[in-house]
């Protein structure tokens, strides 16, 4: 680092990384004190790999780095953190069986006479949590009892403890509510004022425009742009990321919407879902919208038999027949598939290969007498790699080495081999880039042209309006209304999303005891 650049806290020069094939090459970048640098690009472009090299989780194959004027080559994440380089990853680094306070100070628990000083630990945790707006949470709460959004904020708070000169945030808002996002942005502004250099990785381009001063765009492992954020609008950034233009509309192709193939009848689970009924037809995409906590995921789990319903039932087939679904195995036997929102926790075996993951749901097709035929397994995987355009070196590549978008394609590919007639998608594009999103949309269109019935849950209202034939809106666990394409507006959908809570609050107000004095 030269004396001519006194505000540069960290620089990388000629950085490259090769696994089975090159994933990064010739990367030059500098981080400036008190500045937010937005790092974006398609899934598989190399964003996470570059971040892990800076954060000490990976070692560069070629190139060099300098940090605060000295050569920098951390041998571990702990070594980088000791120097003040912190990274908040998409995969949370928390222990669910320990308390919030214990997770925050796990590497530096306050002690007295050889025992943990619980009072000091609690006081320190309260202070750390207040910095990210978590004052309402008891520090003694087990992390496993928190929602994923609050866990994300605990992870951020953990990385802000002590000296921090460089902070890398990898998709920090993917699991956060709008209120938590605002708290995060406030904290980012405070960190900037303290001179912290921040790398903000996200596919949400509107967020980048709001928080970042510079933009760095990776494409196919190479840096194609480092410039002033104000010079680019969302469309220009998308073109840089994917190397082609993507429109705001999508043509799902000629489709025939036929008879109902799925019917949900008065499905309920206490405190979660209340008396929900709807039908989905062959060749149709039925969207489910609603606020976080409205019961969207819970509804899909009831349909799939992952949770037991208190009342109601599901009908499938043409003509519709009542299906006895008491478990996911029953649902699969009736031709229903669920692509979960938690692909890493529930949808994939990250330590296994692409072949093994796709084979999971298709054992009868590749085995005999309890023995898996390796050749058949590889052929099955190769078929889906080609059909799904999964970027990989081979079917033997570990799923953990794939980008988020390609991991999602592996999950979907597994179910496509089953040829299910009803597919339930829970947040199918969460955490993947805009190019991969349009790949997924095109796939959904192909499935409907094959006569599949699709149910899609998404927190992105624009996404549902783009791809769905109808949208049902859940609010406080109830299906408030269902809108047909060309007969909805964003305002109508949002109003319906709040309606159930307003009605519930009014009922609570009416039944609350009144002070008659």
UniProtKB/TrEMBL annotation:
The lineage of its organism: Bacteria, Pseudomonadati, Pseudomonadota, Gammaproteobacteria, Pseudomonadales. GO terms for molecular function: ATP binding; ATP hydrolysis activity. Residues 3-245, 255-501 form the ABC transporter domain. It is a peripheral membrane protein. SUPFAM superfamilies: P-loop containing nucleoside triphosphate hydrolases. InterPro entries: AAA+_ATPase (IPR003593), ABC_carbohydrate_import_ATPase (IPR050107), ABC_transporter-like_ATP-bd (IPR003439), ABC_transporter-like_CS (IPR017871), P-loop_NTPase (IPR027417). It is found in: Cell inner membrane; Cell membrane. Pfam families: ABC_tran. It comes from Pseudomonas eucalypticola. This is Sugar ABC transporter ATP-binding protein.
């Amino acid at each position: 680092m030269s004396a001519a650049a006194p505000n540069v806290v960290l620089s990388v020069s000629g950085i490259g990384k090769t696994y089975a094939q090159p994933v990064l090459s010739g990367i030059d970048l500098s981080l400036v004190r008190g500045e937010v640098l937005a790092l974006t690009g398609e899934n598989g472009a190399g964003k996470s790999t570059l971040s892990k090299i800076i954060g000490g989780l990976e070692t560069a194959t070629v190139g060099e780095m300098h940090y605060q004027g000295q050569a920098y080559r951390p041998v571990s994440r702990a070594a980088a953190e000791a120097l003040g380089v912190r990274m908040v990853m998409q995969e949370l680094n928390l222990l669910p069986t320990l308390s919030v306070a214990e997770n925050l100070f796990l590497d530096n628990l306050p002690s007295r006479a050889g025992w943990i000083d619980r009072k000091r630990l609690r006081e320190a945790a309260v202070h750390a949590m207040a910095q990210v707006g978590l004052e309402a949470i008891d520090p003694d709460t087990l992390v496993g009892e928190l929602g994923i959004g609050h866990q994300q904020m605990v992870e951020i708070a953990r990385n802000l403890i002590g000296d921090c000169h460089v902070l890398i945030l990898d998709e920090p808002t993917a699991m956060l509510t709008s209120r938590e996002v605002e708290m995060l942005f406030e904290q980012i502004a405070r960190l900037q004022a303290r001179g912290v250099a921040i790398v903000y990785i996200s596919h949400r381009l509107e967020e980048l425009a709001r928080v970042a001063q510079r933009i760095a765009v990776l494409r196919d492992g190479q840096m194609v742009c480092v410039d002033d954020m104000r010079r680019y609008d969302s469309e220009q950034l998308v073109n840089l990321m994917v190397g082609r233009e993507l429109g705001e509309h999508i043509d799902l192709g000629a489709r025939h919407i036929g008879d109902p193939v799925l019917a949900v009848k008065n499905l309920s689970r206490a405190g979660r879902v209340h008396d929900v009924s709807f039908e989905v037809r062959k060749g149709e995409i039925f969207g489910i919208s609603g606020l976080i906590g409205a019961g969207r995921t819970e509804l899909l789990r009831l349909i799939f038999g992952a949770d037991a319903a208190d009342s109601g039932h599901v009908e499938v087939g043409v003509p519709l027949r009542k299906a006895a679904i008491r478990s996911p195995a029953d649902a699969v036997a009736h031709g229903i598939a669920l692509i979960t929102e938690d692909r890493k926790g529930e949808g994939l075996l990250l330590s296994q290969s692409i072949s093994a993951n796709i084979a999971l749901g298709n054992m009868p097709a590749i085995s005999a007498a309890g023995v898996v035929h390796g050749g058949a397994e590889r052929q099955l995987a190769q078929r889906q790699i080609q059909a799904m355009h999964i970027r990989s070196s081979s079917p033997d590549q570990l799923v953990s080495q794939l980008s988020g978008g390609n991991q999602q394609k592996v999950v979907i590919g597994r179910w496509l081999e089953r040829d299910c007639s009803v597919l339930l998608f829970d947040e199918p594009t969460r955490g993947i880039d805009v190019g991969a999103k349009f790949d997924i949309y095109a796939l959904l269109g192909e499935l409907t042209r094959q006569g599949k019935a699709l149910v899609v849950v998404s927190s992105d209202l624009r996404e549902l309006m783009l791809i769905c034939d109808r949208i049902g809106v859940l609010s406080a666990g109830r299906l408030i209304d269902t809108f047909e394409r060309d007969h909805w507006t964003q305002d109508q959908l949002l109003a319906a999303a709040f309606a159930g809570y307003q009605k519930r609050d009014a009922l609570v107000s009416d039944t609350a005891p009144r002070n008659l004095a």
